[in-house]
Every structure is written in structure tokens, then in C-alpha cells.
Design brief:
Elements (H helix, E strand, L loop, with lengths): L2 H20 L9 E5 L7 E6 L21 E12 L15 E8 L16 E5 L9 E2 L2 H4 L7 E5 L4 E2 L4 H4 L5 E3 L21 E3 L9 H4 L7 E3 L19 E3 L17 E3 L10 H4 L6 E3 L20 E3 L22 E3 L21 E3 L7 E2 L12 E3 L7 E2 L11 E3 L20 E3 L21 E3 L7 E2 L12 E3 L7 E2 L12 E3 L20 E3 L7 E2 L10 E3 L7 E2 L11 E3 L7 E2 L10 E3 L7 E2 L12 E3 L10 H4 L8 E4 L23 E3 L4 E3 L6 E3 L10 E3 L1 E3 L14 E3 L4 E5 L6 E6 L21 E5 L5 E2 L12 E5 L5 E2 L12 E3 L21 E3 L11 H5 L5 E3 L17 E3 L14 H5 L14 H8 L10 E5 H6 L17 E5 H12 L16 H38 L23 E4 L5 H14 L4 E3 H4 L12 H8 L3 E6 L1 H5 L5 H12 L4 E6 L10 H9 L1 E4 L5 H8 L9 H12 L8
Parallel strand pairs: 2-3, 3-4, 4-5, 5-7, 6-8, 7-9, 9-10, 10-11, 11-12, 12-13, 13-14, 14-15, 15-16, 16-17, 17-19, 18-20, 19-21, 21-22, 22-23, 23-25, 24-26, 25-27, 27-28, 28-30, 29-31, 30-32, 32-34, 33-35, 34-36, 36-37, 37-38, 45-46, 46-48, 47-49, 48-50, 50-51, 51-52, 52-53, 56-57, 56-58, ...
Antiparallel strand pairs: 1-2, 39-40, 41-44, 42-43, 44-45, 54-55
């Protein structure tokens, strides 16, 4: 019984311990990261990023496990977005010492935001002002709780408003930074004085005056006014403890006052013409910078300070060394910068007392001679810069006794290395670049034991002789690039054991045979832009690791037989290398660049033993095939990063390594390289290459395990026929034969199908001569999957031509001359899915094709001669039918449809089924947008086979009307195929009695008016006829709408056909002279029936008038061809007249009409009859000889009797 309570107690303690161990550690607030504070590790540093939009809650409300009071530093960023702190955000942060807020755009802080930050010592604010919404105001009320603040920074916040009582609100402030705010003014309340403020930075603002503010900071030690617009500094005497003044880049000219305590002055980039007296009289001045002013020699006083160590007077107008400034400090000065002035000469001894001088920079002046005794022998100078002068001479003793470490003589006019340099034994870095040195002498450089770096680039050196650098045991780097060096002597680098780097770019070196033999310590060699032709690996030092030999003439690499080579990086870009074999490449290489050479072939196993290779650049060569055996690395340690773009690569079957060139493979292609398909040369990115794209050409090949290759007839031996190109893949699963016709071979030989390889999987016959396919043309080709026979002139395919092709899936017979197929051509082709018949002459299809091809899904029939759509194609998946003369029609045989044509639910009855079929199966047609209804209007009238579209005027040429099928289907049940529209008359007549009565009345009135008009016209017409008879001119016109006379009453000598626009010319120049000669003429527009040029109809009356004439005078002008001849009634009547062999046609050609450019119908008429040019001087002679003889009129009695029989009493004038 006692054990049970003990057991329960142990269990309870175990649960408590588990809960204690499972309690999660301290978590950071949302959007924050926590770390130990670098100053006080027991406290916390919190970094909060509110760049993403999210709800900001006070830190005290976050589940931070009571650690809020342990935060000592808090850094907040907002990524330049609008932000607002909750009033209680900093609540309970009583231990916070350092607060930084950056990029949180706001207009002001709330009054209660900093209430709990009584311990805050540093406040940094950056980029606070909104970019466009207004200014950021730092209010006095917000700063009141921060009475113990020591450092306050507000920077990079434009449009800032600083309170005038800032110094009163922060009595313990020691550091104030208000830089980069664009402040125009900085004012304070007169009663606010910061007794503890030491450092002030108001640089990069727009201040013009700072005097009023400075009077409130009496204890200031350091002030920065750089990059403002201040012109005067007269109030600095109110700062008796000032030590450092930075007033760079202002507008100060001279007016300045300083307390004697100042030791550092920076007045660079102002408008000074001399050193201000307030500066020159400073007793303890240590550093003075007056660079980038306009100071001239002789304008300044002696500097009173004997403590001056640094003087920078560069970028001024000094023409001599300002030694008078340095009379009191010449033994103290350590750094003197006088570059970019106008100094032409430095007299000897002017710096004889400058024993403490360490740096002298007189570069970019006008010195010609550097004389002896300018510098004292016991000087501490270590850096002498004399570059960019016009130095021609360094006197022999000018550098004697100096302890120089860096001597810069670049960009001068030295013709040889000055002998004075040999006396500087501690020299480490020598720069003689960009001079005119043409020869190197012994016993100059080799005497400088500590020499580390020598730069002789951009000179005129022609060779490097022996022992030039001998005994330079510390020489590490040598640069002789951009010279004219063509020869390296054998001992040029002898006894230079630490020489690691030689740069000889852009010289004339042709060989490295012996010049580097003594440079045993060399690690990096750059001989780019030289004339090297043969690169001998044996001529290179064994320890060389990096070789750069770009832009040479290298066309041969010798064998790399030495196993001691340490080369890791070799760059031979832009040379003339054509072949790359394994023995020409060192095995130690890690990076090899042979880009932009002429490499067309890689030898077998070229990189097989390069196990250390990591990067290979073959870019910009002439490689067409990179076989797997050439690129494979047998024991590679690292993946190889390959660049191979800008090569004419062919997707060859020997390049199967490309299929695995991903990120995880041994070879990783870095660039966007392409290879071109072996058949049609289309580019394929290597990254998307597939196995089926890799093909090899062949002329004759045997498949693996083929046992009949030695025999002539072997099914596993593939021989490519003449005029064909053949390709296969690596595994012989793909065998493509592509044959094309030749336009140069005459006569053209008929292609022999039996010569095609039996194992072909794809056959393309394009443009060859193949008019007929005979039975069993392709029998036995069990692997054939795609067969293309295009543009071969194929007219006939015999039965069983495609017999027994069990694998055939695609058959292309497009662009031939086929008229029909029965289906018996495709026996035993069960897998055929795609059949291309476009571009032939089919007008119908039989059902047998689809019975023999049960799996057919895709069929192309575009550009054939189908007028109706074969219904047998409805079972297919995809069809093309554009480019066929499909006829579209509708009929009103269905009476129910006639009376309900307005109903959208009724379907019309179709005469031709094209539109009906498309209405139901348009989703099957892949080119439905291009399908058109096609109607030959002329043919329809001549053959009396019209459709609903026959009434439309031609819009394609003179005979054809076309309409998009989509448009026809859209409008057939609204306008095209609707006999009448359902409107007012379709409603109940009882509701429109008044309208009917009015309509009938209007109709009766119109009929009366028509009768009266006809009577008036007839009377007028009769009067005109009588006048014509009196003038011996016959009238051929009849009443409009009347039937033609049963027999011609009058006979005319000629019917004149012409353009209405040429009527005046025809009457004056042709008809009137003929009528004066008693020719009886009938003119088209004067005497013929009235017709509408837009009406597509045939005029029987016009045909009868022309038939009553003995000949036709056809006046051909541009107006006639463009207007009258394009109408159906003119063209038809003239063609009928020309077919009558008893009639004559005389064609009169007007200006600008070429008989050879007329259309076929008119040209046929002119070829069989007479044509005369109107401008011919024999025009009237030829015309009279072509006109029929003038026949007498018929007897008067017969004519009068006939008139009487038809019209009644004949007028006496006619008789």
C-alpha cells in the first residue's frame, strides 16, 4: 500500500521534468532575428526587417518569453516603404542602449513612442523622409524622453525639419550627425547650448552659413562642413577647443578665422588663391590639405607651425616647389604632395633639411631633369613619384643614399634605365613603363638585391639580354608587355629563383625555345599577342602553372611527353590550331582554353587521360563532330564545364555524350550551344537534344550481326542510292533515305524504287522523276514508318503498290498529279495514321480507301479540285480542305423551312453539301479559317448549273466569286439562303388592313405612271426612227423588254462596239466618215439596248442586233478593256458573234493597247480576224479593204408588208 503513493510521486516528477525539457527556447519576435549583443553578450541584439507588408505589433506583445527587458541593441529596416510604429512598440524596452531605424518612411514619430527608452544612448535614423508625400519632422516632444542620449544621427533623409530646441532636448549629447539631408539652414534657439557636444557632422547639405549654430557648441572638438555652399567661416573663434576642421568642397575664398587649437585643416576644393592667414598662423598645425584650389607660388606666407607633417597642395597652379612655406617645418614634414601642378625645376638642396620626408609626389608636373642633392642622403623617404613628367635625365647621384622602396618613373621620356637607380639598394618596386627605353644594360637592375616588381611595359625594347636580372634574388614580377621584343637570350632570367610572374604581351616573340630555361621558379607566363607559331611544351619551366598565349599564330602543339609539367591553366585562344590529339595536351591541365581557333577534329581519346580537367573551352572553332571517345575522360575527378558554342556542330550519332550533359553529369555545357540536324540543318539547342536527333550519314553500311554483307543482295546491308543522302542512328533503329531531283541532269532518269535500302525507316523522295508506282514497289520494307513522295509528277499508282508495309504510319503523296485512289493500293497497311494528298487533282474519294486504312486519323486534301466534300471523311480526327473550289448552295425545297426561315433551329436543304458538311464538322478542319466557297459565275450560266452564289458579281478575276466558308455559314440563315424576310407582311393581315389599302393604292398609281411613261417613250422612239429613215440611216433598237424579231428586218454593214468614255472620239473619227460613205452602222451606246454594267446577265436583244450586222468593228481602248469588256453581256455576245464564220470582225487598236497582253478570250478573237492600228497611215485603206461590200436594201414591198403584218399601217415616210 505504501508503494503506490511513492510510484505516483515519481510519475509526477517525471512528467514535470519532461515538460521542463520540452519547453521551447526563447523565440524572436515576428519578422526579427536575435543574437547576443557584441558589447554585452548576456544581453540581446535584435534585427527586425519589415520590408514585407505585415502587421507590426509592439515587441512587448510578442511571445518573447519575458526577454523584452534584456534587449540592449535593436536594428530596424523597412526597405524604403511607408511605415508607422505603434505607440507601444518600444514599451518595456528599459535596457535599450542602441536603436537604429533605416528606410522606414514616415512623417514624424508619435509623442509616446520613446517613453520607455530612458536608457537609450545612441539613436541612428536613416532614409526616413517619404519620397513624395512630404517632409520628415523630428519633433521636440518625441525627443524629450531621450534626455540621456549621447549620440544622435539623422542622415540621408531629405526634406527634414530639425527642431530649434534640439540641443535643449538632448543635454548630454556628445556626437551629432546630420549629414546628407539637403538642409538649407541649421538654426538653434539662443538659450540652447550644448556644453558636452564634441563632434558635429553636417556635411553634404546645402548650408550657406553655420555661425549661429556654432555659438551654441562651445566645447566642440571636431566639425565637418564638407560639400556645402559656405563662403565664410568667421565664427569659429567661438569654439575655443576646436581641433579638426573639414571644409572641403565649399566656396571659401579667404575669409576664415580659427582658434589656435586647430591641428587638422582640410580646405580642398574651394576657391583659395593663397593659404589663408588664419591657417598659416596656426602654431600647432599638423596636417593641411589645400588641394584642388587656385593657389599660385609666392602668394602665401610662411607656415608658422613647426609640427606640420602632411601638406597636400596638389591640383593647384604652383610653378615651383613652395619651400618658403616649409621654413619652420622642413625637418618635420613627412608627406608632401605636389602632383598636378606646373613645376618645371627643383633646385638642388631645396629639400636638404627634409630628413623626415617619407613620401614625395611630384607626378604630373613639367620636370625635365631630376638633379643631384635634391633629397638628403639620410632621408627616410620610401616613396618617390615622378611619373607623368618630361624627365629625360636622372643625374647619377640624385638617388644616392636614399632608402626608397617605391620609385615611379612612368610616363616620362627616358631612353635608358638611369644608372642612379642602381644605387638604391633597398628598392622593391620600380615602375619605368611608358618611356622610350630601347635597351637594357647589365649591372643596373641586377645590383638591386631587394627588387621585387619591375614594370618596363610600353617601351621600345627589342630583346632581353643575358644576366639582366641576374642576382635579383627577390624579383617576383616582371612586366615587359607592349614592347618590340623578338628575342629572349638563354640566360635572360638566370639566377632569379623567386621570379613567379612574367608578362610579355604584345611583343614580336616567335619562339620560347631557350629564353625561359633558367626561370625555374616561374608560375605564371603571359605571352599573348605575339608571333609564336609552334608551342613547345619542353621549352616551358617545369613549375609553370599558368600559361596565357592568346592571339598568336600557333598552329602546332608539340607532344607533351614530360610527366613533370605542372601546368594547370592554359589559354591558347585565337590562334590557328587545326587538330588536337591526346599527346599534345598535358595531363596535368585543370583549365584549357582553345576557343576561336581552327580546330576541325579532335583525336581519339584526346581528353581521356586528363583526369584533373575542370574547364574546357572549345568555343568558336570549326568542329562539326565531337565523338564520345574524344571527349570522354576515363578517370575524371571533377565534372568538366564545357563551352562549345559557335561551332558548326552537326547532330551526329557519335555525339551521344550530349544526351547526358546535365548538371549532374560528368560534362556540363555552360553556354547555349547548338547543333544542326543532319538532314535539314535546322538548329537544335544541345540542352534539348534527343536521341532521335543524332544521325550519321552513310553510303554503304552493314548492321551489327549481319551475316550476308558479302553478298550483293542482302536485306541488312544498306547502300545509299545515287542522288540520295542516307542517315542512321547509333543503334541502327533509325535509317532515313532522302532523295532529291536534280535540275541539271538531262535527260531525267526515272527513279528506281527497288534501289532503296530494305531496312529504311523513313524514305523521302522529293523532286525525282517517278510518274508511276508499280505493284509491290515497296514490298518487304517491314521497318518503313514514314514514306514521302512529293513533287515527283506521280500520276498513277497501281494496285498493291504499298503492299505489306506493316509499320507504315505516315504516307505523303502531296504535290503530284494524282486523280484518284481506290484503296487497293494500301493492302496490309494497318498502322497508317496520316495520309497527305494535298496538291493533287482529286475531285472525289472512294470509300475503299477508308476500308483499307482502318486507323487513318489525319488526311490532307487542301489544294485539290473538290467541289463537294466527300462524306466518307467524317470519321477522321483532322482534315485540311482549303484551296478547293467548294461550291456552296442552299435550296427552298423544304416548305417548312421556307415559312420559318427566321428560326435559328431550322436547317436548310442543301443542293451542294460543302456548307452542310462544314456546319456539322468544322471542328475537324485544321484550316477552316482559309476554306472558301468558290463559284465560277460564267461557267454556271453557260452550263445552266447555278447556285445561290451565281447571282453575285465576280470578285476574283472576270469569272470567279469567292466567299469565306465561315462567312457563308454565319449568314446563310439570315440573308444568303432566306427567300424573303419575315417582317410586317408575315403578321396577321387583320392587324394591317390600313397598310394594305395604302400599299395597293400606291401600286395602282405607280402602274398608271409606268404606262404613261412607256407610251411617251414609244412615241418619242418612233419619231426618232422616222428621222433616221429619212437620213438613210437604219435604226436597230427595239423597245426595252420586247422579244427579238423573228427575222432581221434591216441589215447593217457594221456594228461598232466601243467604250462609252470614247464615244465622241469614235463618232467623229470613225463613224461619221463611214456614214458619209453610205455605210449603215449600229453603235453600241447610241443604238444598242440600255444595260447596267454591274448587272451580271446576258442580253438577247444585243445578240440579235449584232447578228443583223455583216461585220463587227471592235474599237479596243484602255477604257473598253477596263469597263465594257469585263461585263458578261458584252463578252458573251462578242464571243458568239466571233464564232459565226460568215461574219467579219475588225479590231481597231487604240493608243496604249498591246495585242500580246490581252486576255485569252479577246486574244483568240484577234488571232482569227483582222486588226488595224488606229495610228497607222494606211488605216483607211486597210479598213475599206476589210469592210463588207455595201449591199442594197431589201425590196420595199416585202418590208412594208412585213411591217404591216406586225405593226399595222406602215408610215408613208418609211415606204
Amino acid at each position: 500500500m505504501r508503494r503506490k503513493p511513492i510510484f505516483l510521486l515519481l510519475l509526477f516528477l517525471l512528467v514535470l521534468s519532461i515538460n521542463a525539457t520540452d519547453q521551447p527556447p526563447d523565440e524572436c519576435p515576428k519578422f526579427c532575428k536575435c543574437a547576443p549583443d557584441p558589447v554585452q553578450p548576456t544581453a540581446k541584439l535584435v534585427l527586425c526587417d519589415y520590408s514585407t507588408n505585415g502587421t507590426v505589433v509592439p515587441l512587448a506583445d510578442a511571445n518573447y518569453n519575458n526577454q523584452i527587458a534584456n534587449i540592449r541593441s535593436l536594428f530596424i529596416t523597412c526597405d524604403l516603404r511607408q511605415f508607422r510604429f505603434p505607440d507601444a512598440y518600444f514599451k518595456s524596452l528599459t535596457a535599450l542602449h542602441h536603436l537604429r531605424i533605416v528606410g522606414c518612411h514616415m512623417t514624424h514619430f508619435s509623442v509616446k513612442l520613446f517613453e520607455d527608452l530612458s536608457s537609450l544612448r545612441t539613436l541612428e535614423l536613416g532614409q526616413m523622409s517619404p519620397p513624395s508625400t512630404g517632409a520628415f519632422e523630428m519633433t521636440e516632444d518625441a525627443l524629450m524622453p531621450l534626455a540621456r542620449l549621447e549620440k544622435f544621427s539623422l542622415t540621408r533623409s531629405f526634406n527634414v525639419e530639425i527642431p530649434q530646441r534640439l540641443l535643449c532636448s538632448l543635454p548630454h549629447l556628445q556626437v551629432l550627425n546630420l549629414s546628407t539631408n539637403g538642409l538649407p539652414t541649421l538654426r538653434r534657439e539662443e538659450t540652447c547650448v550644448a556644453q558636452q557636444l564634441l563632434i558635429v557632422d553636417v556635411s553634404r547639405n546645402q548650408l550657406t552659413s553655420i555661425e549661429q549654430f556654432l555659438r551654441g557648441v562651445p566645447a566642440i572638438r571636431q566639425i565637418s562642413l564638407a560639400h556645402n555652399s559656405i563662403a565664410q567661416l568667421d565664427a569659429l573663434t567661438a569654439t575655443p577647443f576646436l581641433q579638426q576642421l573639414d571644409a572641403e568642397n565649399n566656396r571659401i575664398q579667404e575669409s576664415i578665422s580659427l582658434p589656435d587649437t586647430v591641428v587638422h585643416v582640410n580646405l580642398a576644393g574651394n576657391l583659395l588663391r593663397k593659404i589663408p592667414d588664419a591657417v598659416s598662423t596656426l602654431p600647432s598645425l599638423v596636417a593641411l590639405n589645400v588641394s584642388r584650389n587656385e593657389i599660385e607660388s609666392g602668394n602665401s606666407s610662411v607656415l608658422a607651425s613647426s609640427e606640420l607633417e602632411m601638406l597636400d597642395a596638389s591640383y593647384n597652379n604652383l610653378d615651383q616647389l613652395p619651400t618658403e612655406w616649409l621654413q619652420n617645418c622642413d625637418k618635420r614634414i613627412a608627406h608632401l604632395h605636389l602632383e598636378h601642378n606646373r613645376i618645371q625645376e627643383i633646385p638642388g638642396g631645396v629639400l636638404s633639411n627634409a630628413t623626415n620626408l617619407q613620401t614625395l609626389d611630384i607626378s604630373s608636373n613639367r620636370l625635365r631633369v631630376f638633379a643631384d642633392s635634391i633629397l638628403p642622403e639620410n632621408s627616410k623617404i620610401g616613396n618617390l613619384r615622378l611619373s607623368n613628367n618630361s624627365l629625360e635625365v636622372l643625374e647619377p647621384k640624385s638617388l644616392e643614399g636614399l632608402k626608397l622602396e617605391h620609385l615611379d618613373l612612368s610616363h616620362n621620356k627616358l631612353s635608358e634605365i638611369p644608372s642612379a637607380i642602381a644605387k638604391v639598394e633597398q628598392l622593391k618596386k620600380l615602375d619605368l613603363s611608358n618611356n622610350q627605353i630601347s635597351k637594357l644594360y647589365q649591372y643596373v637592375l641586377n645590383k638591386i638585391k631587394q627588387l621585387h616588381t619591375v614594370d618596363l611595359s610600353n617601351n621600345q625594347l627589342q630583346s632581353i639580354g643575358p644576366y639582366i636580372f641576374s642576382d635579383s634574388s627577390e624579383l617576383h614580377s616582371l612586366d615587359v608587355s607592349n614592347n618590340e621584343i623578338s628575342l629572349l637570350f638563354k640566360d635572360a632570367f638566370a639566377r632569379c629563383p623567386k621570379l613567379r610572374k612574367i608578362t610579355m604581351r604584345n611583343n614580336r616573340i616567335k619562339s620560347l625555345d631557350e629564353g625561359l630555361s633558367e626561370a625555374s621558379g616561374l608560375r605564371r607566363l603571359d605571352v599573348s599577342n605575339n608571333l609564336i607559331v609552334v608551342l613547345k611544351w619542353s621549352a616551358l619551366p617545369e613549375n609553370l602553372e599558368i600559361l596565357l598565349a592568346d592571339n598568336n599564330d600557333i598552329n602546332l602543339l608539340t607532344a607533351s611527353t614530360s610527366s613533370k609539367l605542372s601546368l594547370k591553366t592554359v589559354s591558347l585562344a585565337t590562334n590557328r590550331i587545326t587538330v588536337m590529339n591526346a599527346e599534345q595536351i598535358p595531363n596535368s591541365l585543370e583549365s584549357f582554353d582553345v576557343s576561336f581557333n581552327r580546330i576541325a577534329r579532335l583525336g581519339k581519346g584526346a581528353f581521356g587521360e586528363k583526369s584533373q580537367l575542370r574547364k574546357l573551352n572549345l568555343k568558336g572553332n570549326q568542329l562539326t563532330v565531337v565523338p564520345t571517345e574524344s571527349i570522354r575522360i576515363l578517370e575524371g575527378v571533377h565534372p568538366v564545364k564545357l563551352e562549345i558554342s559557335q561551332n558548326p556542330l552537326i547532330c551526329d550519332c557519335q555525339m551521344t555524350w550530349l544526351l547526358s550533359s546535365g548538371k549532374t553529369s560528368r560534362i556540363q555545357i555552360l553556354d547555349d550551344a547548338l547543333c544542326h540536324h543532319a538532314i535539314d540543318q535546322h538548329p537544335i539547342p544541345l540542352k534539348s537534344l534527343q536521341k532521335k536527333d543524332l544521325l550519321c550519314p552513310y553510303q554503304s553500311i552493314c548492321e551489327p550481326e549481319c551475316i550476308c554483307c558479302q553478298y550483293g543482295n542482302c536485306d541488312c546491308k544498306s547502300v545509299c542510292p545515287a542522288s540520295c543522302r542516307c542517315f542512321r542512328d547509333e543503334q541502327f533503329n533509325i535509317n532515313i533515305v532522302r532523295c532529291a531531283g536534280s535540275n541539271t541532269t538531262v535527260p531525267k532518269r526515272e527513279f528506281v524504287v527497288s534501289e532503296l535500302p530494305v531496312s529504311a525507316t523513313e524514305i523521302i523522295l522529293s523532286g525525282v522523276t517517278l510518274p508511276q508506282l508499280r505493284t509491290h514497289s515497296f514490298i518487304g520494307r517491314l521497318r518503313l514508318q514514314r514514306l514521302h513522295i512529293n513533287g515527283t509528277g506521280l500520276r498513277n499508282i497501281q494496285t498493291k503498290a504499298f503492299h505489306t508495309l506493316p509499320s507504315l504510319k505516315t504516307l505523303d503523296l502531296s504535290d503530284n498529279a494524282l486523280l484518284s485512289l481506290t484503296g487497293d493500293e494500301f493492302l496490309k497497311c494497318p498502322e497508317l495514321q496520316q495520309l497527305f494528298l494535298n496538291g493533287n487533282r482529286f475531285s472525289s474519294l472512294t470509300r475503299g480507301i477508308f476500308e483499307k486504312l482502318p486507323n487513318l486519323k489525319h488526311l490532307t486534301l487542301h489544294n485539290n479540285s473538290f467541289e463537294d466534300v466527300p462524306r466518307v471523311i467524317s470519321s477522321l480526327s483532322k482534315i485540311s480542305l482549303s484551296g478547293n473550289p467548294l461550291r456552296c448552295d442552299c435550296s427552298a425545297k423544304d416548305e417548312q423551312y421556307r415559312h420559318s426561315a427566321g428560326s435559328a433551329h431550322q436547317q436548310p436543304f442543301w443542293e451542294h453539301n460543302a456548307a452542310e458538311w462544314f456546319a456539322q464538322h468544322r471542328e475537324l478542319v485544321v484550316d477552316f479559317q482559309a476554306v472558301e466557297c468558290w463559284e465560277n459565275v460564267t461557267k454556271a450560266f453557260l452550263t445552266n448549273d447555278t447556285t445561290v452564289l451565281s447571282a453575285y458579281p465576280p470578285n476574283v478575276g472576270p469569272d470567279v466569286f469567292e466567299m469565306r466558308m465561315e462567312e457563308f455559314l454565319r449568314d446563310y440563315n439570315t440573308t444568303i439562303c432566306v427567300p424573303f424576310s419575315s417582317g410586317f407582311f408575315g403578321q396577321d393581315p387583320q392587324n394591317s388592313i390600313i397598310f394594305v389599302i395604302v400599299s395597293v393604292s400606291i401600286a395602282v398609281l405607280l402602274c398608271i405612271l409606268v404606262v404613261l411613261a412607256v407610251s411617251f417613250v414609244r412615241k418619242s422612239h418612233d419619231a426618232i426612227n422616222q428621222r433616221r429613215y429619212k437620213a438613210s440611216s437604219l435604226n436597230c433598237s427595239t423597245s426595252a423588254g420586247s422579244s427579238p424579231l423573228p427575222i432581221p428586218l434591216l441589215s447593217y454593214h457594221a456594228f461598232v462596239s466601243y467604250s462609252k468614255k470614247d464615244e465622241k472620239m469614235v463618232v467623229d473619227q470613225l463613224c461619221r466618215p463611214l456614214e458619209d460613205e453610205d455605210y449603215q452602222l449600229c453603235l453600241l451606246h447610241r443604238d444598242g439596248p440600255t444595260y447596267n454594267s454591274n448587272l451580271h446577265a446576258i442580253s438577247d436583244e444585243l445578240i440579235a442586233q449584232m447578228d443583223s450586222s455583216q461585220c463587227l468593228i471592235l474599237v479596243l481602248t484602255k477604257h473598253f478593256l477596263e469597263n465594257e469588256w469585263k461585263t458578261l453581256q458584252i463578252k458573251t455576245s462578242h464571243q458568239l458573234f466571233a464564232k459565226n464564220r460568215s461574219k467579219r470582225v475588225i479590231a481597231v487598236l487604240g493608243d496604249g493597247v498591246d495585242a500580246n497582253l490581252l486576255d485569252d478570250e479577246l486574244g483568240q478573237i484577234l488571232r482569227k480576224h483582222t486588226r488595224i492600228e488606229m495610228r497607222s497611215h494606211l488605216f483607211w485603206t486597210l479598213l475599206h479593204s476589210s469592210l463588207p461590200s455595201r449591199l442594197p436594201l431589201p425590196p420595199n414591198d416585202d418590208s412594208s408588208q412585213l411591217y404591216s403584218d406586225i405593226y399595222g399601217i406602215v408610215p408613208s415616210d418609211v415606204v
